[in-house]
Predict the structure.
Amino acid sequence: MQSGIRIVSSVWSIRGRRVLPVGVVAVFAFLTGCEAFFTTSAFANLSRDPENMSVEQLLAYSEEAIASGNAEKMEEAFRALHGKTEGSKLSDRERDTLVDLGLGASDVAGYLSGNPERDTLDAVDLSDYPGDIARETARLMSEAPDGDFSPDRYAYAGAGVVLAMAKDDGFESIDLGDGSDDSELAKGLLASARAGYEADEREDDEVYQYLNDFEDSYTS
């Protein structure tokens, strides 16, 4: 597996869709050879099966998965941790870890590839896109107090719901003004993102500009 990541301003630019920086991770070096990578001392625990871990063990495993930048490991960790905590009141640490895992696993930046226009996204292959994780991540964020997450997180979570909708019915069918649950969820997160950028006086931020173009493309 060869992947490169660089950060331009606050927009992630990615070669290799399945690797994504999330949370406290800022920059990753080039990763070559998945097997060698996951047996290094820093990430050796990622070779373990998360399904048989306790919640506390899963939280530690999840932090390693997030630090690794590997979307597949983050998806495994999300499903395991979500399954263990489903139906219980989440601690802030559990919620925040699930959000970071969900944003990493759904790899929104990789799928969008820097272009919000509907006609250029129709050819994007969403067959492997984890729409259920994108929706659950968005739900967790929407139920938290407003402002608990960064504007970038709100933006990518909202866009993730749009990708989940596109996986189900295609990009051409999406209208964020149709009042559906998915549309309202996406719009709420995108509004939180916009409010955060404006409160921070970051209207010149590339993600803020992208956000406006993206929402306009999917609202009649």
Observations:
- The beta strands are 2-8, 11-15, 31-32.
